[in-house]
Amino acid sequence: MYSFELKKADSVASAAALLAQTNGKALAGGQSLVAAMKLRLAQPGTLVDLSGIRELSGIRRDGDSIVIGAMTRHAEVAASKDVQAAIPSLASLAEGIGDRQVRNMGTIGGSIANNDPASDYPAAVVALNATVNTSKRKIAADDFFKGLYETALAEDEIITSVSFPLAKKSAYVKFPQPASRFALVGVFVAQTSSGVRVAVTGAGPSVFRAKAMEDALARSFTADAAKAVRIDAAGLNNDIHGSAAYRAHLVPVLASRAVTAAG
């Protein structure tokens, strides 16, 4: 590890100001950023610690939505009675992230801001048509994730919370990479007020919607309908863990299991 300066923020406004002044990086749970720094894949001169900002944590029901603060830990989402009752698929997703240490340190805001291509939360954000609330604006799910480790966030913009609308039915199923528990492929299926949405993580450079799958499930919300869809392997990830063709094959398989799980 190399030397860097750590600054502790006590409010969202002070954190944003520190990021703008120092061109530093926000530190949430640190489960991705610290590991990247150890490998010299990231070398920020300044880290702005968000852990002391109380307004960034917590879970609440707001009408027909569940609002989760950006610094809320994965374990807290998994254990939340409000999340379990309103969006059980989201609680289940959180319970399946990494190992116990990661779940007790990692945060939902840090996860989606990092936008790892195999991360679980982006699939939930997109499939449930969530809204990402920041220090500057509200960003719709379809506009937030831009590409490999890329989001719509500005350098000094901080995620404050994520608002998840309740779905009629939803479920998330992933094929985990055994060592990391990241998704080799993960599929989140949801029947929402605006129709069926299917989000795929792990298969491509960033989370994406499977439109052909959505159309098929809009006609018939059944496992057979999902399994019959063929996914184009072009542009999908191809690495030592699985070929693009293998990932393309997994998408309808996992989608059909998600439909069954959704009920």
Short overview:
The protein is α+β, with helices and mostly antiparallel strands. It has helices at 12-22, 33-38, 74-79, 81-86, 88-95, 100-105, 108-114, 121-127, 141-144, 211-219, 223-227, 244-262, and strands at residues 5-8, 25-27, 46-49, 59-62, 65-69, 131-134, 138-140, 145-147, 150-151, 159-165, 169-176, 183-192, 195-201, 208-209.
Description:
By secondary structure, the chain is an alpha+beta fold. The chain folds into two domains: 5-165, 2-Layer Sandwich (Uridine Diphospho-n-acetylenolpyruvylglucosamine Reductase, domain 3), CATH 3.30.465.10; 169-262, Enolase-like, domain 1, CATH 3.30.390.50. 36% of the residues lie in helices and 25% in strands. The chain has twelve helices and 14 strands. The chain has a five-stranded antiparallel beta sheet with strand order 4-5-10-6-7. The protein has a four-stranded antiparallel beta sheet with strand order 11-12-13-14, with helices on both faces. Strand 11 and strand 12 (183-192) form a beta hairpin. The longest helix has 19 residues, at 244-262. The radius of gyration is 18 Å and the shape is globular. The termini are far apart. The model has no long low-confidence stretch (mean pLDDT 96).
